[in-house]
Design brief:
Mean pLDDT: 75
Radius of gyration: 27 Å
Strand order of the largest sheet: 1-2
Strand content: 5-15%
Shape: elongated
Low-confidence stretches: 72-103
Number of helices: 6
Order of helices and strands: HHHHHHEE
Structural class: mainly alpha
Length: 143
């Protein structure tokens, strides 16, 4: 996966430090990934996905398919040859985007909690085991 992260970095013409800052990862963490001291975590993958929405996650994690979800890397390569993508143009007040968003991958997740009515439970017996292999049983009085 580290080679594919490097490919993204190179496609965007960014240094390790620029890339780490852009995705919100420490430069030390990115460096340790590239030096094989650690492996990329899910947080790293999510950080890349958040900043590059049309990155193909299967490609990033497993090397399957093309770099981008739309399957056509030629537009990105053409932009690189023409001077690269300006990742910081929005901060400079320009309207050029980093990469076009092709679709939203994560569906809306809804959480439901179901409460099941159950009769109140009562303690019927308590056993205490001791280290000398004996035990005592306590039975509460019935009301």
């Amino acid at each position: 996966m580290k080679d594919r992260i490097k490919q993204i970095m190179e496609a965007q013409k960014m240094t390790q430090q620029q890339f780490a800052n852009y995705i919100g990862l420490s430069t030390a963490s990115l460096s340790s990934i590239f030096n094989d001291r650690t492996r990329p975590t899910l947080n790293t993958v999510e950080a890349i996905r958040n900043k590059f929405p049309n990155i193909n996650i299967n490609w990033l994690m497993f090397g399957d398919g093309t770099m981008f979800n739309d399957g056509d890397d030629t537009e990105v390569h053409q932009q690189q040859e023409e001077g690269g993508l300006d990742l910081f143009s929005q901060a400079a007040g320009q309207s050029e985007s980093v990469l076009p968003v092709t679709r939203q991958l994560s569906p809306e997740i809804r959480t439901e909690v179901k409460y099941i009515e159950r009769p109140q439970r009562r303690i019927t017996e308590i056993r205490v085991y001791y280290d000398d292999l004996t035990y005592e049983t306590f039975i509460p009085e019935k009301k």
